[in-house]
Amino acid sequence: MKNALALVALLAAAGASAQDQRFGTTTLTAGMHLIKAEIAATEAQRAQGLMFRDAMPANAGMVFVFDAPATQCMWMKNTPLPLSVAFIDADGKIVNIRDMHPHTLDSHCSTKGVPVKYALEMNQGWFRQKHIKPGMKIGNLPVRR
To answer: If we measure between CA atoms, which residue out of 34, 80, 78, 75 comes closest to residue 58?
Structure first.
C-alpha cells in the first residue's frame, strides 16, 4: 500500500512538472485566417505539447519548431483534445495534414523523404473547415535560433 501511494505521488508530481512549461505565442497566417499559436521550440516544450489540455480556442493552436528539417512524427499521449496536425517545410509550405485521436500512442508522421521544420496542431477539422490543404503556405513561422 505504501509503495502504491508513493507511485501515485510520483506520477502526480511528474504530471505537474510536465504542465509547468511556458510557451511564447505568435500570430500565424493561413491564407486569410489568423492563428494564435503557442510556440514549442525546446525539447521539453515539444515533449509536453498540448498534453492535459481540455479545450483550445477556435483559431488557436501550437506550432512545433524542430532543430533541423527531417521526417517528424507526433503522438497524443495524455492529450484529451482531438487534433489535426499540418507538417510544414522550412519555406512554410504544408507537406501533409493528419488527424490525430485523443489519448493514443499512434504515430502521425510527415511524408517520408520530405523534410519538415514545423508541425502545427489545431483543433481536429480546422484545416478542412478553412480549406487549408497541402501545398499552401503558413506565414509568420518562428525562426529557431
So the answer is: 34
Residue 39: CB atoms within 10 A of its CB come to: 18
Query: Would strands 60-70 and 33-40 be described as parallel, antiparallel, or unpaired?
Result: parallel
Report the pLDDT value the prediction gives residue 16, as an integer from 0 to 100.
42
Q: Give the number of other CB atoms < 10 A from CB of residue 109.
A: 16
Q: How far apart are CA 138 and CA 71, in angstroms?
A: 18
Q: Which CATH class is domain 23-139?
A: mainly beta
The H or E element spanning position 98 is: strand 94-100
Where are the chain's structural domains? 23-139
Name which of 108, 35, 95, 36 is nearest 69 in CA terms: 95
This prediction's pTM: 0.86
When mean pLDDT is compared across 18-22, 26-30, 94-98, 113-117, the lowest value belongs to: 18-22
Specify the amino acid at residue 103.
Answer: H
